[in-house]
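Ex. 9. Protein: Reverse transcriptase domain.
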Amino acid sequence: MNIVDQGSVLSPVLFNVYTSDIMNTTSWKFMYADDVGLVTQAESFEKLEEILNEDLSIVQTYFKSWHLTLNPNKTTSIAFHLNNRESDRKLNLMAQGVYIQGEDAPKYLGIKLDRTLTFKQHLEGVKNKLKTRNNIISKLAGTNWRCRANVLRTSALALVYSAGEYCAPV
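Predicted structure tokens for Reverse transcriptase domain:
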């Protein structure tokens, strides 16, 4: 039985309350709504994989006790390293007996993270989104439509500004 619909404004808050007692892990946990990120550092990839696999096991046990499921097909990993060649390495991680796919630029909360943290792919995506939305505003401002200034401003704020501002501080 679902008490709160998916997409409800209460869903992220209730999920955070529901999972606020999540067990201690060696990794740092970043949680928002139903997205959980585990971040850790180690002196070797072997140690890193050991820590993350142990923490994934802890999280899976916790989720199981609260009737939640971790979907290994939606779970990805990425390695950040000062040496770019080393960060190409794929981590050997498992969740529920399934190997977790390594990605070069996974998306987390709408941000494309790349292994060197340049955010080039993310910024390219934002640029394309803004270009498309700006074209819509241009069409509204065209001579045939004769939109009023306040309608254009509201539309621009809703369509363009919101997309450009999202995660801008990052």
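Check your answer against this statement. The longest helix spans residues 120-141.
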